[in-house]
Amino acid sequence: MDEIIDDHSYTGLASFAPIPLSVSSPAIRPEDRKLIKAQAVEAMHLKAQQQIDLLKRQAALIMEQARELEDRVLISQQIYEATMRFSPTMGMTYHIYKRHDGEVILSLVSPAEWGQRFPFKHFVATVKLLGDHTWDILQKGDPEADEITAK
After folding, report:
1. Average pLDDT of 28-47?
2. Which of 9, 36, 96, 116 gets the most CB atoms within 10 Å of its CB?
3. pTM of the model
4. Can you give the pLDDT at residue 89?
């Protein structure tokens, strides 16, 4: 068993000696524990900050997705309150118009298909019915026709 008998005596293998045993022994320098701790703390802070930044970016993305879903729900509610003379099919594209009396209409006919005889006050939007029965706005129409907008 290696042991230090007093401050100047070591019995054991020279390669494991805690102190140089001869002039040709490699120099043994004491470790700067404060420096080691400071570097470890700095590395820890850097890694933690990187993880915090990543989590913030992920949270921002999740919040954006939540806002988009809220908008789709609001828009969908407004569309379902509009006049429909047919049952919409999932995956199909429809067009929303506002009449002169303020009534909102869901139509199969696009603005281009009306030609010269456009019977509405405003084209509001082109929408697509999604599988969850919410609507995705593909194209917004007249900015004055604000009935179909998220609040």
Report:
1. 87
2. 96
3. 0.55
4. 93
Domain regions of the chain by residue span: 30-151
How many C-alpha atoms does 126 have within 13 Å on its Cβ side? 10
Pairwise CA distance, residues 139 & 10, whole Å: 85
Residues 151 and 1: their CA atoms lie apart, in Å, by: 79
> 138: closest CA among 93, 106, 98?
93
Q: How many CB atoms lie within 10 A of CB 24?
A: 6
- The string of pLDDT tens digits covering residues 75-126 is 888 888 899 999 999 999 999 999 989 899 999 999 989 888 888 998 988 9
The two structure tokens encoding residue 128 = 């697509």
Model confidence at 150, pLDDT cuts 50, 70, 90, reads very low
Which strands form 93-98's sheet, in the order they lie side by side?
Answer: 104-107, 93-98, 122-129, 135-140
Could you tell me the two tokens for 14?
A: 């020279």
Give the alpha-carbon dihedral of 62, 66, 71, 73, to 10 degrees: 140
Burial of 62 (0-12, 13-18, 19+ CB in 10 A): exposed
Residue type, 67: R
DSSP alpha helices (H): ranges in the chain? 33-80, 111-114
